[in-house]
Specification:
single chain; mainly beta; Thrombin, subunit H; 6-stranded antiparallel β-barrel; about 0% helix; about 70% strand
Length: about 110
């Protein structure tokens, strides 16, 4: 049984147009929910010789209860980091989500 002992924020991508007609995209707060957080194995280190950046890519799974409007147009903020959603699976007899995410940290 899941304990849902961590708090995460979910943001949704909204698209609009500026007064001059230029399209714009912004992330807006959707919900604050409780979740279980599991760091997946197999992170990778990559070196970009052009920018001389080293990046550490890893995935995290979030297990949450079901809530409306959650989908691939959302992202998760957890522990001061932003995570892109790459896969969503319904769990708990469609009462929750298993969310696979990616985070890439870069430094010089």
């Amino acid at each position: 049984m899941r304990s849902f002992n961590e708090v995460i924020q979910v943001e949704i991508l909204t698209k609009s147009k500026l007064a001059d007609g230029t399209p714009t995209e912004t992330w807006e707060f959707l919900a604050e929910v409780r979740a279980d957080v599991v760091l997946s194995e197999g992170g990778t280190l990559d070196y970009d010789s052009d920018t001389q950046n080293i990046s550490n890519d890893y995935t995290i799974k979030f297990f949450t209860r079901y809530f409306e409007d959650f989908g691939y147009d959302c992202r998760i903020k957890y522990d001061s980091e932003v995570y892109k959603i790459v896969y969503i699976k319904k769990t708990l007899r469609n009462r929750g989500f298993e969310v696979h995410t990616e985070r890439s940290e870069g430094w010089q």
